[in-house]
Amino acid sequence: MNIDFRGKTKQILESMVEEGYANTQSEAARLAIVQFGEEHFNEAELVNRKLDKLNKDIDEGKSKLLTPEEALGKYAKFLK
Question: Domain extents for the chain?
Answer without folding.
Answer: 7-79
